[in-house]
What does this fold into?
Amino acid sequence: MNTYHVLFLCTGNSARSILAEAILNHLANRNGRFRAYSAGSHPKGAVHPLALELLTQHGIPTTGLRSKHWDEFAAPDAPPLDFVFTVCDQAAGEPCPYWPGQPLTAHWGVPDPAAAEGSAEDKRKAFLDAFITLRRRIELFTSLPFESLDKLTLQQRLRDIGRTSR
It folds into this structure.
């Protein structure tokens, strides 16, 4: 069985892409089919504390999570990528580096929970909403019959997943 390498991109790489990386790696521990990473075009340099809190509450390991630049994944020694998903609208509009191997790409935009305003409870709810949306999309993604889909059909399914909310 192949292990698919998946990169989640966002601008700051502190919340949404980190959540997606952790969720997929947690789900992948069940079958080893996926290895997830995350990066940003302008990484903040730290993972948002509410992202770490939420992952911990859901029993998802946070060890090794860090905010990093997407250039790490365009380097010659980077893991070969099979899929690249943007999870924020800004990163989707930015010119990305060349990804060796021409991975399949899709935009899975999610509102930025780190930009949420209001009370502490409002901010936690924004993180939970992002978490639930990403988890649902990742569950749909991991259930795809990769071996039986041609590249064009798979690409369309990835785009369709990006339009699901919960």
Strands lie at 4-10, 34-40, 83-86, 104-107.
